[in-house]
């Protein structure tokens, strides 16, 4: 499985991805991750900033699914694979930690990195594309306007 340029764009612009792991009782655990990045052509990575349940689940069962959705484009990807925990000193941890500190400043917590080996990626599309014949540029403009209007109403 190769992570292509469009997948990279979506992960970068999503700003928030969702990670699903398996709890001890078999139920799903869904957790938002603001540190998701493409590491290379076959891997995603995110930082354990405050993820004790995600980490505990992955220690027991490395299966993982990551959903990255660009909410303005109304599309994204579902990445399925397995995860490895990477501790401080590991190149994946150091790479992601440097990015995290550049973004948030010194002292930001970074316990360990999680490297996701992507085995499968499937597109996620809004029904506006499949049933409404929507154009991505028009959708971005419309949804950006919706979110900005919501912010204006909150003020």
UniProtKB/TrEMBL annotation:
Residues 4-121 form the Pyridoxamine 5'-phosphate oxidase N-terminal domain. SUPFAM superfamilies: FMN-binding split barrel (SSF50475). Pfam families: PNPOx_N. InterPro entries: Pyridox_Oxase_N, Split_barrel_FMN-bd. It comes from the Bacteria. Signal peptide: none annotated. This is Pyridoxamine 5'-phosphate oxidase N-terminal domain-containing protein. It comes from Nonomuraea cavernae. The lineage of its organism: Bacteria, Bacillati, Actinomycetota, Actinomycetes, Streptosporangiales.
